[in-house]
């Protein structure tokens, strides 16, 4: 498109009071670009003024200098136009007060001893916005060659059935795949279900049979029992799925992921991405055809992963004191199956079990952790199963010994009703021993609420066994992706299939595959049904977004996707290996192949590429690099004591919103910092840092999402990869005779805005202590 440029600057919200608007307007005027000011640009009149210029053909690439791009984003959208929002309000005038940084007098403006830090920042931001609209282009949507609106549901339990029903009611075709010979899953083996309605005091019959019967009413639901998914290839909108019978071997069986020991070198250190990829290829030598589509496979638009859970296996010395080898010490799973058959009896001899002890924590000491994979569900199960004992036997007694009792929401009412039952005794305590006592068992506990040790005679002891997601043992989805068949980094979540608990429930690391139910976390039947609805809606959203050629999440509506300049590709495979979402496949030579509807548009591949051949239509190496070069770097040729220049590359998901909140709260930080938001720190290419320092900037700080055990990075690995890359820049800085301290990586959560001002100011002070960049002025 032939670009026609325009700049619009708002003078409202204090912008015109703080800044020298005449000088600011001169910035685009110097480039021959028309600049218009307005006292209230987001008003109906202000937007209409811009729209008139668009309609008259005067402008199609514009810079709007006003509030943050996170504000009024729906107003400043003009069809067929490139729009760059320059943050003059939250980014310039609100966090930098004139009391601390006074404006220059007319006499001072021509004096080399004086400069206006706030004005300089605003002018830099206008120049950066102008160069960006010059360097980017309007994106065009990507459309798949084939397309399907069908949804595949893996798992025929309560979650899978509920998800299928919700999707079918919305008008979508659904296929349920179940390994077993019939539907129902664990819910079909249960005796009763927790109450779901007022007064939340009575157990109810499991709803699974009603759900199975309801399936028959929907002709757009297909059920495949005694079937498993052998392979899923392709991308959202055109997943090609191969089915097989359990245990069957077929040519399209997926390659094997690397064993953990092969990810380490001889010294036990983790191999870098390139070395891991080389080992992966060797490990699966001769099986690269797995990336090809199955010509006989079925086409689906999205996948819902509802494969469920299995009971944990309690073994080892950790549980020896609980008598796990005794025949009448069982798990809650085993207890439920006994209860489903009739009255509660002992497995050892079939006699009535009228006195039952439910142990919720294995620890001998107070406040020890619960059993693995336990939580509120196992607390509720203990209450439910204690009720079984009381319902089966008028003189039955149930004892619940816990460290933590969790009954969320209105299930608290059920807990209170259990408290009123004189036949059910509950106490916090630590179980010290479970032993034989003639024809019964004896349970010892200490640190109880009674203030004394207890010895309880029992016919049966029930341990609160956890719900382990099946992905711990089985990748389930069997994805034909270069990076392996299942979900990576499952150890972070204990095997649960989730990419980000906090921000993106249901979404997994594989775009188009959505997790629901106990595969995501321990859940009750009621919670699983609700969770299924969420996953079904996500799958529908994914299909509709793929059909429009836009990203589904987290950059919803983004039409861009990675584009490659293959003439310079060295087949180094870094982009393929480092992509957090498996959006890139490659051939035997290592040439990347994009799957745009899989792509989350994070730009991690762009940051990984040493040849800088990967870009997005409106987000390129050149567009960010040119913004960096547009920043003025005053030297001693300009001022007697020139101000320092600090570049901050900040994650647009956490750090940039936090910076906006800093401005909204009028918290001051150094105006010598120039902020450029990036899609993800994983997209930051090291050339940007080198260019900034080479042109004389005094320091560079990267601020991204937190990563680690409580993973919050929107793009899973972006923040972590950025930190690794920054740490590797030490040698490059030394070769330029620059201190390593001039480049810093920092983490921030979106709600930690109050930490940002000191974080930035402290870094500026450290840079000032180092002194000016020796490249300044060259």
From TrEMBL:
Domain of life: Bacteria
InterPro entries: 4Fe4S_Fe-S-bd (IPR017896), 4Fe4S_Fe_S_CS (IPR017900), HdrA-like (IPR039650), MvhD/FlpD (IPR003813)
Protein name: QmoB
Taxonomic source organism: Desulfamplus magnetovallimortis
Chain ranges of the 4Fe-4S ferredoxin-type domain: 560-589, 590-619
Keyword Cell membrane tagged: no
Cofactor or coenzyme needed: FAD
Keywords carried by this UniProt record: FAD, Flavoprotein, Iron, Iron-sulfur, Metal-binding, Oxidoreductase
């Amino acid at each position: 498109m032939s670009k026609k440029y325009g700049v619009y600057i708002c003078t409202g919200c204090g912008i015109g009071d703080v800044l020298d608007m005449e000088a600011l307007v001169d910035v685009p005027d110097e480039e021959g670009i028309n600049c218009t000011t307005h006292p209230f640009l987001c008003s109906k009149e202000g937007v209409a003024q811009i729209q008139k210029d668009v309609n008259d053909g005067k402008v199609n690439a514009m810079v709007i200098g006003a509030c943050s791009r996170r504000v009024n984003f729906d107003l400043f959208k003009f069809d067929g136009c490139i729009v760059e929002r320059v943050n003059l309000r939250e980014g310039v005038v609100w966090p930098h007060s004139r009391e601390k940084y006074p404006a220059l007098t007319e006499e001072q403006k021509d004096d080399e001893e004086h400069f206006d830090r706030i004005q300089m920042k605003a002018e830099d931001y206008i120049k950066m916005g102008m160069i960006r609209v010059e360097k980017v282009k309007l994106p065009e949507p990507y459309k798949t060659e084939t397309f399907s609106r069908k949804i595949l549901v893996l798992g025929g339990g309560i979650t899978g059935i509920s998800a299928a029903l919700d999707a079918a009611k919305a008008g979508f075709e659904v296929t349920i795949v179940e390994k077993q010979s019939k539907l129902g899953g664990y819910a079909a083996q249960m005796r009763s279900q927790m109450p779901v309605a007022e007064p939340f005091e009575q157990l109810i019959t499991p709803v699974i049979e009603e759900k199975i019967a309801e399936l028959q009413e929907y002709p757009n639901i297909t059920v495949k029992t005694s079937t498993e998914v052998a392979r899923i290839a392709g991308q959202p909108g055109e997943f090609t799925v191969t089915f097989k019978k359990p245990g069957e071997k077929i040519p399209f069986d997926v390659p094997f992921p690397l064993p953990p020991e092969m990810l380490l070198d001889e010294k036990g250190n983790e191999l870098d991405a390139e070395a891991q990829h080389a080992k992966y290829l060797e490990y699966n030598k001769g099986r690269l055809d797995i990336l090809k589509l199955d010509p006989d496979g079925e086409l689906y638009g999205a996948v819902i992963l509802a494969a469920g859970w299995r009971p944990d296996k309690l073994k080892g010395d950790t549980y020896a004191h609980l008598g796990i080898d005794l025949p009448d010490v069982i798990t809650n799973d085993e207890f439920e199956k006994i209860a489903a058959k009739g009255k509660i009896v002992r497995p050892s001899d079939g006699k009535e079990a009228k006195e039952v002890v439910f142990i919720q924590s294995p620890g001998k000491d107070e406040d020890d952790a619960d059993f693995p994979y336990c939580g509120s569900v196992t607390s509720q199960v203990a209450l439910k199963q204690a009720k079984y004992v009381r319902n089966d036997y008028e003189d039955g007694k149930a004892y619940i010994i816990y460290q933590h009792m969790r009954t969320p929401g209105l299930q608290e009412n059920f807990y209170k009703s259990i408290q009123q039952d004189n036949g059910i005794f509950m106490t916090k305590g630590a179980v010290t021993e479970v032993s034989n006592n003639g024809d019964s068992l004896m349970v010892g506990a200490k640190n109880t609420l009674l203030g004394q040790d207890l010895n309880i005679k029992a016919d049966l002891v029930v341990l609160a066994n956890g719900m382990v997601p099946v992905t711990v043992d089985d990748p389930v989805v069997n994805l034909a992706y270069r990076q392996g068949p299942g979900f990576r980094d499952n150890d972070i979540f204990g095997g649960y299939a989730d990419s980000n608990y906090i921000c993106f429930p249901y979404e997994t690391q594989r775009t188009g595959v959505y997790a629901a139910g106990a595969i995501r976390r321990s859940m009750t039947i009621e919670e699983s049904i609700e969770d299924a609805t969420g996953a079904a809606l996500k799958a529908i959203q994914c299909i509709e977004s793929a059909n429009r050629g836009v990203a589904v999440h987290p950059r919803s509506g983004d039409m861009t996707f990675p584009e490659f300049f293959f003439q310079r590709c060295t087949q180094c495979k870094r982009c393929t290996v480092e992509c957090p979402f498996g959006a890139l496949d490659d051939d035997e030579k290592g040439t990347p192949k994009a799957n745009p509807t899989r792509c989350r548009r994070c730009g991690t591949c762009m940051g990984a590429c040493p040849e800088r051949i990967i870009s997005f239509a409106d987000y390129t190496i050149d567009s960010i690099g040119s913004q960096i070069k547009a920043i003025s770097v005053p030297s001693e040729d300009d001022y007697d004591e020139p101000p320092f220049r600090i570049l901050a590359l900040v994650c647009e998901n956490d750090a940039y919103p936090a910076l906006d909140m800093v401005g909204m709260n009028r918290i001051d930080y150094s105006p010598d910092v120039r902020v450029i938001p990036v899609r993800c720190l994983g997209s930051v290419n090291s050339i940007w840092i080198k260019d900034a320092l080479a042109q004389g900037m005094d320091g560079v700080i990267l601020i991204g999402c937190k990563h680690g055990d409580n993973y919050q990075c929107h793009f899973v690995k972006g923040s972590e990869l950025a930190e690794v890359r920054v740490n590797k820049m030490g040698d490059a800085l030394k070769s330029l005779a620059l201190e390593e301290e001039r480049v810093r990586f920092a983490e921030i959560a979106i709600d930690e805005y109050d930490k940002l001002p000191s974080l930035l100011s402290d870094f500026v002070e450290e840079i000032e202590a180092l002194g000016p960049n020796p490249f300044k002025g060259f």
